Amino acid sequence: MEDLHLASIVVSTIRNAPVLMFAAMAGLFAERSGVVDIGLEGKILASAFVSAAVAYTTQNPWYGIAAGIAVSVALAMVQAFVSITQKGNQLVCGIAVNIAMSGLTFVVAQFFFQQGGRTPDLGAARLTDVVLPGTAALDNIPFIGWLYGHVIGGQSVLVYLAFILVPIVHWVLYHSRFGLRLRACGENPHAADAAGVSVERTRYLAMLVAGVLCSFSGAYLAIVQSGFFLRDMSAGAGYLALTALVFGNWRPLHTVMGCLMFGLFGAVQIQLEGVDLPVVGRIPGSLIQMIPYVVTVVVLAGLMAKSVAPKALGKPFVKSR
């Protein structure tokens, strides 16, 4: 057990969480407006591939992030058109996006790069970690040096963005006019329509924001964490983000706590690999990799009945005549 370092687990948790945080915040906007966003997984994959491909081609990670935003927003608008304008089945539309992107990203990656469905290593095109001033001077001070250099500092810009977004999303949702209209459209769209709110326009804006936020999740996976794109590299992150929404009862701060919880289990999973534990010995890697998904099932089984989703979630809005 001496190989299980608490410091490493804390740092890994912070670095694992942004993938889920961005996707969960995206799902929060969509579902608070009344649109079920099962397609988070597909948008993560699409933005991860495009971000990696453009960053590698241009050797500029910011171009990759911009391209990831564009493709994620495009997919979100397709979902919005089918779900909002055409009143289609939101679950089927989201699943279709997921299936399509799982196959399409692999095929396009193989066509352009000929590396078994992955992109080349990004190398210098990866986003570098931010080194705060004074890190070297404080490095030898117990705890403070580690806290300043590896927890507060030593992270990517996207990590800071993920945590900065939490209070911003909370304020927008509960203290802005847009947030009030968003919640009204998710709870009682007919009342919102009677008050002069354009339900379709509000839901389109929510999906636009969701597309932008979800793109950061894919860009983080490819440009920060991995340094390349690999087929199905999201590994269910979109579904875990939806589980975090249920865990957080569709509230920003509580949802982020769920994301951190899944990030923690992911960090523990990494630390457990190859470690001999008392009594049980070395746990097979396949069992360790199951930890986040087993936790997902437990969370859903325990909290689904207690969570209260927006009342109009998944229901197409038909304007009263």
From TrEMBL:
Keywords: Cell membrane, Membrane, Transmembrane, Transmembrane helix. One of its GO terms (cellular component) is plasma membrane. It holds the Pfam family BPD_transp_2. The keyword Zinc does not apply. The keyword Cell membrane applies. It is a multi-pass membrane protein. GO terms for molecular function: transmembrane transporter activity. The chain crosses the membrane at residues 6-28, 62-84, 91-113, 157-174, 204-223, 229-248, 255-272, 287-305. InterPro entries: ABC_transp_permease. It is found in: Cell membrane. Its main location: membrane. PANTHER family: GUANOSINE ABC TRANSPORTER PERMEASE PROTEIN NUPQ (PTHR43370:SF1), SUGAR ABC TRANSPORTER INTEGRAL MEMBRANE PROTEIN-RELATED (PTHR43370). This is ABC transporter permease. It comes from Massilia forsythiae.
